[in-house]
Amino acid sequence: MSARDQLSTPTIRLSDYRAPAWRVERVELEFELGIDVTEVASRLLLRRDRAQDEPLRLDGEGLELLSIALDGQPLPVDRYRQTEAELEVDGARDGSVLETRVRLRPAQNTALEGLYLSGSRDTGFLLTQCEAEGFRHITFFHDRPDVLAQYTVTLRADRSRFPVLLAGGNPDGAGELADGRHWARFVDPHPKPSYLFAIVAGRLERIARDYRTADGRAVKLVIWSEAHVIDRCEYAMDALERSMRWDEQAYGRNYDLDVFHVVATHDFNMGAMENKGLNVFNAKYLLADPDSTTDDEYRAVEAVVAHEYFHNWSGNRVTCRDWFQLSLKEGLTVFREQQFSADMNSPALKRIEDVALLRRAQFPEDAGPLAHPVRPSQYSEINNFYTATVYEKGSELVRMLAGKLGPDGFRRGMDLYFAHNDGQAATIEDFLGALGEANGIDLSPYLAWYAQAGTPRLRASGRYDATRREYALTLTQHTPPTPGQAEKRALPVPVKLALFARDGHMLPLHVDGHPRSGDTELVVVADKAEQQIVFREVDAEPVPSLLRGFSAPVILEGMDAAADLALLLRHDADGFNRWQAGQQLATCAYETLRDHGGGGAIDAWCGALAGLFAEDGIDPALLAELMTPPGEVELAEREREADPERIHATRQQLQQRLAEQLGGEAILSRYQALARETSAGLDATSQAQRRLKRRLLELLALLDTPTAQLLAAQQYEQAPGMTDRLAALAVLVRSDAPQAAGALAHFRQRYADNPLALDKWFSVQTQRTGEPALAIVQTLERDAAFTLKNPNRVNSLYGAWARNNPSGFHRTDGAGYRLLAERLAELDALNPQIAARLATVLNGWRRLEPVRRARAREAIAALAEREGLSRNLAEIVRSMLH
Ligand code: PHE
Ligand code: ZN
Questions:
Q1: Ranges for the Aminopeptidase N-like N-terminal domain (predicted)?
Q2: Which protein residue has the closest C-alpha to ligand 1 atom 7?
């Protein structure tokens, strides 16, 4: 572990923000690249803010300083001071030039932050990761996003070991040097913060494509990977081109350099990184081929390629003033990607997936000890704030604003936002200000959403008055306290709603003061603790459909009459709203089953789905989603003393009821029909069919296990691609089929050289529910292919187990918690970011039933007391205990 990780951990506060006293206007970097030793020479043109009287202080950690000169003069040792995190220099003036030379050791960098080696010493390549504060591990700099500089980067290296040399910006010459060495230079004309800097060097293969932007620029698009997987980059290239076109059409945004490089690596802490002109991707989100990539993963590749590309405007051209504003780029870019993916695929399914993710990942975060606002007010380690709240909830906030302004108004606002802030480091206020200004609306009430943590609960109740032909809807809102925020205020909650008649058609809405009387959908903004809306001219008691499209990130309570929800599930024309009603109904059914062993909600849910199952014309993918109740994590959220084993068992029973209602014969024959009809293609129909096929196989396994296992074994053998193969393998593993061992051995061999597929081999086995899971995990961690040094591998084992298999992880004896805590400590010494993120799987420990709760607490407390924890892990573990 590096020295910095053991430093004391100051709290950084948004309220302490100060504009930089010094800036760097231009930076010239020269790299002498080597696997063991790399030297970096830097030349900074400095600017000082005359209003501030501060010595020149630059960030720099773990840098071995070889030489230093100011304005051409070598500096004597008494003119500068290097601490563990900073370099302080005397005598610098506005316009001074500071030159330093430092030595780095990339092969020893296991934290994967700064300059590091991906792959083996012999065949791997060098790359950098700088967001959020990695640049200070490369050279001395003002490593903060509000210091924007122009970069000129020269790379020098041995040609045979490093034939490819890349940096962000446009190429500006290359050539030979003595002794088999060569050089390449890149100039980035766009000023950027240090976190967007990147270089890559090594043996890489490429695919390239010419692209012309809408405003006429000829751009070379190049994707780089290890040679033997370069064929698997074509899909990402297509996705990149689609993203670029879409951003031109939807937002009028054009690409702004002559080249756009994308590089795949297997060693990466996150999904991907939007470095200016040189995106770096976790291979998981770039490589794709039918033999090793599932349909879901294909869509993820498209989404992440788009996300990173969209950052070129929302993040790079307009960047963040400070890291508290992170959602300014992330929430907005997630939202843009969601719009794009909805346009490319099924909008309803995209919304279903995103809302399901929000509920599974963000709601628990917002309800637990790590809850924080979309714009946090303080942190000790910024890397801990790349969270579902900043990303996913942040996107929901942008969606609310976009919904309020409408498509044209939002576009007008975005145009103004880009125009006003281009080339600058902006804040959330700048964003809301521009959107509001372009539309003559004051959006400042929505700022409270960025500052207040916790998920608001919106309770709805209705009363019908037959004599007055009025329906009164009462909405109350309440947000439970979160750490550090005891008091909560009412937020503006846009509730999109409709009223249905009992025959399933939508009623025209008449509300006093609402301009477009007669519409069948309208948005009410609930911004008080309690309010009432009265609908007039309502002939019979209606069925309300609330929060349509998930118009605000809140938890809706009340309005859960089973018959009403079943009606919406059957009749709503909109797939997402149908799903939403179905999830609510399934939750009621689950709770009835748990508390009473049976009841009307179960029949209503199963009956409505049986009706849909028998119908023609419904999208098979939507049907598969409708037939899936909320997951175990989501169900646990509703309980004060969760028993994961019991939740698992009850949910299984509920699905078994559904399977019984559909009938074994019907499931089987539908499965077989799909198996006959489905082509191997990636088209939407085939993907949808595979999705339903998988769901049917899972349901059948609950009804007639031997038959389902036989079919799964067959499907495994005959699968034309990974989607079917992995689905079959999962059924075999989860049901402990006699065929599972053979299939696993086959899979292992077949994909021995494909790390991404091997990750799936690890994670699928962690999904055995209940008691056996722990021993499986212990066997897998002794596997020759397992290593704590690779983040994807770590997540595919411990992450998959602890996050996606609650009944297998949360054991009453606490052995799951102890194993995880042990590994977290080992991992922390190698890669603090990955350790800290993995630790968050424990964040719901307080809502476990008492026995597990006590065991979890012990394990977390023991971890917290270990010496030498990184700032990353320490912050997470300590916050969880508070
Ligand atoms: N900025 C990246 C993204 O969301 C995520 C990331 C953060 C990557 C930190 C690496 C390090 O696109
Ligand atoms: Zn991002």
A1: 109-196
A2: 131
Q: Enumerate residues with CB within 5 Å of ligand 2 (an ion).
A: 330, 333
Does the pLDDT value for residue 590 go beyond 90? yes
Token reading at 6: 């053991």
Query: Which whole number is the average pLDDT over 309-338?
Result: 99
Q: Quick check: 276 and 190 in contact, CB under 8 A?
A: yes
CA angle 455, 456, 461 (to 5 degrees): 140
Q: Three-state SS for 471?
A: strand
Nearest residue (by CA) to ligand 1, atom 3, is 273
Could you tell me the two tokens for 253?
């945004």
Quick one: what percent of the chain has pLDDT higher than 90? 98
Provide the greatest CA pair distance for the chain.
96
**Neighbouring C-beta atoms of residue 705, cutoff 10 Å:** 14
- Mean pLDDT over 31-36 rounds to 98
| 197, 143 contact by CB (below 8 A) | no
Ligand 1 neighbours (beta carbon < 6 A): 129, 131-132, 270, 272-274, 307-308, 311, 330, 386
DSSP summary character for residue 797 = I
Could you count the other beta carbons within 10 Å of the beta carbon of residue 813?
Answer: 12
Q: Report the predicted TM-score, pTM, of the whole model to 2 decimal places.
A: 0.98
CA 399, 405, 410: angle at the middle one, nearest 5?
75
Q: pLDDT (tens digit, 9 = 90+) per residue, 214-235?
A: 999 999 999 999 999 999 999 9
Q: What is the mean pLDDT of residues 723-735?
A: 98
**How many helices (H) and strands (E) would you count in the chain?**
29, 31
Q: How far apart, in whole angstroms, are the C-alpha atoms of residue 780 and residue 763? A: 10
Task: Extract the tokens encoding 727.
Answer: 């689905």
Q: How many CB atoms lie within 10 A of CB 19?
A: 12
pLDDT surpassing 80 at residue 8? no
Is residue 392 flagged as an active site residue?
Answer: no
Q: What is the Cβ-side half-sphere exposure of residue 296, based on CA atoms within 13 angstroms?
A: 11
The interaxial angle of helices 684-703 and 664-677, nearest 10 deg, is: 150
Atom of ligand 1 nearest to the CA of 383: 9
The band of 513, judged by pLDDT with boundaries at 50, 70 and 90, is: confident
C-alpha 224 – ligand 2 centre gap (Å): 20
Tokens 């760097």 belong to which residue?
24
Q: Is the pLDDT of residue 7 over 60?
A: no
What type of residue is 807? S
In tens, the pLDDT along 365-376 reads 999 999 999 999
The pLDDT of residue 5? 44
Q: What percent of the chain has pLDDT over 70?
A: 99
Parallel, antiparallel, or unpaired for β 86-89 and 56-59? antiparallel
Q: What is the mean pLDDT of residues 183-192?
A: 99
| Structure tokens belonging to residue 457 | 């609960």
Q: In the numeric block, which tokens belong to residue 620?
A: 């098979």
Q: Which ipTM was obtained for this model? A: 0.99
Which amino acid appears at position 483 of this protein?
Answer: P
Query: Which residue's structure tokens are 């490369």?
Result: 138
